Here is the input.
Amino acid sequence: MRFDLWRGFLDLLFPPKCAFCHKILPKDCRKDGICPECMEGLKKTEITSVGKCEFTDGVYSCQAYSGNVRKSIHRFKFGGRQEYSRIYADMMAKRIIGSLGRLDIGFVTYVPTNKSHIRKRGYDHGMLIARYIAEKLDIAEMECFRKCRETKPMYGLTPSQRRANILGAISLTCKKEHIMGKNVLITDDIFTTGASVSECARLLKSAGAGRVYVLTVAKTEK
Ligand SMILES: [Zn+2]
Here is the structure.
């Protein structure tokens, strides 16, 4: 009760806004974090095809990385909006839930982020998404990677520069016996050329993983 009062007071002071268009949310949509217009729009712009990327067995994305989706991910990564991770995880879980039986995923993991970025943000955005997706899908989540050196932002780099940027920058931190024979789902925010997820998938497969799938919030348009 005390929590509800406090929540109500905070909502009055700072009315919750839609994660995508950033307009104040009608009361009945506050739980979802998305306004009805955006919810409809997102359904229309869902990416239904499955993409390809080296060392992976399929890339699933929810939305095109443009417009309000792009602005939303920007607020999530650089504007302190860590609560978007739950909203994205809901969307991502819906994207993949129909294929779960066929994919037979053993555990969910995520692409590692530079430590300096996590310190600056105060949260690991990739880990949050993976954790909520695992919770939604009722699958285990496992931290598998760490950055052994800082990488440059991928934005603006050519595909070959992206590969060079990530090569040797990620190492496996979990034991091979936890990976051996299991199918893995790697989650991330944006899929561009897939340089980072491809490197993660390569490491998982060299440790004996079965199939490796990728699921992202958004995908850049070619
Ligand atoms: Zn909206």
